Amino acid sequence: MSQSKYLSNLEPWQDPKAQPYVSIKNITKTFGGRIAVNDVSLSIYRGELFSLLGRSGCGKTTLLRMLAGFETPTSGKIFIDGMDMTDTPAYKRPVSMVFQSYALFPHMTVEQNVAFGLIQEGIPRNEIRDRVNAYLELVQMSGYEQRRPNQLSGGEMQRVALARSLVKHPKLVLLDEPLAALDKKLRERTQLELVNIQEKVGVTFIMVSHDQEEAMTMSSRIGLMNEGRILQVGGPTEIYEYPNSKYVANFIGLVNLFDGIIVEERSDHVIVKSTAMEKNLYVSHSASVPVGAQISVAIRPEKVMLTDIQPKDEYNWTSGVVKDIVYLGDVSIYHVKLRSGTVIFATVANLVRAAERPIQWEDEVFLHWQSENGIILAM
After folding, report:
1. Hey, which end of the chain has fewer CB within 10 Å, N or C?
2. What tens digit of pLDDT does each residue of 254-278 get?
3. One fold for both 12-246 and 254-378?
């Protein structure tokens, strides 16, 4: 394969020649001396669905509001499509926002809500009608034109709010917890619908969410925030499989963490001694870490195998007693207490009915995993 062909398969954020569509440079925001966003820099590319993910109070919504123009940065710069938007007022930015509450006008019909921004801009009446009809069809709300918001379900209001944002042909759509008000089933269905709509229109989306599953399902990339800083940026697979810190590993899904010390370091593996384990941990394909370094080893529960037969391997296994079994339908999560008192999670597919499971509460079991499934994290 030629070098040029190889480069053409890169995602924009992997291509050193690609120019970011949204560039956030060293943005800081303080409120009365409290730092809400702390020296954040981000590059987001055209057509991405990028998620800012984190707990309440981490700074993600403040960052979104600065992109929208509702807050002014204390320091730093914001560029959209090469234009400096740092001091541009919200109404002059090529940006639309979908609020968590949807913010539809209760006295207006669906059609009037979607058309409102176009009317304010003085768009010709025929073009308004055509664009409103086109975007209501896109969000599957044709036939609802004359209904008012109080006659719509939460999912329907969310679609109208999205149509109202898209109809103005913005360069950037910002979504502030857009699915938080929906029930679980509707939220899961709407996640995929939103992704499909975003791919059809090709507009860059930046979404704020505290829901890790939502961000993992919808995003091209995720920026995980804590205390006003970006801790890691990457695709869902990268964030989940290769977290760069204990905080990230703990925030995204369940994880088993073993604190320990490097006792052997080679080019293709390290060996870790942990007081929580009966056997040493062998981690392959690890970054170079010096002998004696204090680290943590992360293992995802679905990588842990559960058995009543003692493994013959020298490394990466331990024994314990089943203390809890959390049944989730398709899988069960076993909580196994080791002799050290540490509890390990193991996810097991429910291939047989619960009553037929070979391993039950208070059974003594063995847990083991492959060497490539461990991740070395700094303490």
Report:
1. N
2. 999 999 999 998 888 999 999 998 8
3. no
| pLDDT 10s digits, 12-22 | 888 888 999 99
Stated pTM of the model: 0.89
- SS3 string of the chain? CCHHHHHHCCCHHHCCCCCCCEEEEEEEEEECCEEEEEEEEEEECCCCEEEEECCCCCCHHHHHHHHHCCCCCCEEEEEECCEECCCCCHHHCCEEEECCCCCCCCCCCHHHHHHHHHHHCCCCHHHHHHHHHHHHHHCCCCCCCCCCHHHCCHHHHHHHHHHHHHCCCCCEEEEECCCCCCCHHHHHHHHHHHHHHHHHHCCEEEEEECCHHHHHHHCCEEEEEECCEEEEEECHHHHHHCCCCHHHHHHCCCCEEEEEEEEEECCCEEEEECCCCCCCEEEECCCCCCCCCEEEEEECHHHCEEECCCCCCCCCEEEEEEEEEEECCCEEEEEEEECCCCEEEEEEECCCCHHHCCCCCCCEEEEECCHHHCEEEEC
The CATH number of 254-378, from 2.60.40.10, 3.30.710.10, 2.40.50.140, 3.40.50.2300, is 2.40.50.140
Name the residue among 284, 257, 278, 259 with its Cα closest to residue 338: 278
The structural domains of the chain, with segments of one domain joined by +, span 12-246, 254-378
